[in-house]
Write a structure and sequence with these properties.
The chain is built from five helices and eight strands; from the N terminus they run βαβααββαβαβββ. The chain is of the alpha/beta class. It has a single domain, classed as 3-Layer(aba) Sandwich (Dihydrofolate Reductase, subunit A).
Length: 187
């Protein structure tokens, strides 16, 4: 069975919005390697509408010679959860999931293949966690307080016990934490 893995950049105060404004001073080869490993273990992305629109406007315009990850981003299968977008989606290899989201994601998990990765899309991550469809949560916690912006877990997040399964500290002070939903026995 495939896993659904959310990989997120967060500030210490939980902000995930606009990491391009605050995360670059903490970038390191270690982070790059961890991100590359995440993409190497996946063959599909799952995203919400906002993330899709932002990335679909950016990645197809990138030259793979200058930005090697562009080829990966453009070739991956993309599943987009949205009730407002219409098909056909413009970005290559993109499929719209408009209805029965939990059922459709369960079907994807049961197909052969590698992991399905989510980056950004906080509302989708919270929803998948609530419905038991998120298998791992990989957080890169940056040592900065951003103060305001969309947080991964807002005031409406439900209590959900998690189990820490791996942790690393990068040379720039970024914590790389991997969690899985805790089993019913340990909660």
């Amino acid at each position: 069975m495939r896993k659904v893995v959310a990989a997120e950049f967060l500030s210490l105060d939980g902000v995930m919005e606009s990491p391009d404004r605050w995360q670059f001073p903490y970038w390191s080869d270690e982070m790059g390697q961890a991100i590359e490993e995440g993409f190497a273990s996946s063959d599909a992305m799952l995203m919400g509408r906002v993330n899709y629109e932002e990335w679909a406007a950016y990645w197809p315009k990138q030259d793979p010679e200058e930005n090697p990850i562009a080829a990966t981003m453009n070739s991956l299968q993309k599943y987009v959860v949205s009730t407002t977008l219409e098909e056909p989606l413009e970005w290559s290899n993109s499929t719209l999931i408009k209805e029965n989201v939990a059922e459709e994601i369960e079907k994807l998990k049961n197909q052969p293949g590698k992991d399905i990765v989510i980056s950004g899309s906080g509302t989708l991550v919270r929803s998948l966690l609530r419905y038991g469809l998120l298998d791992e949560l990989k957080l890169m916690i940056h040592p900065i307080l951003v103060g305001s912006g969309k947080r991964l877990f807002d005031d409406e997040a439900e209590t959900k016990p998690l189990e820490l399964v791996d942790s690393k500290t990068f040379s720039t002070g970024v914590l790389y934490l991997t969690y899985r939903p805790a089993s019913e026995q340990s909660s």
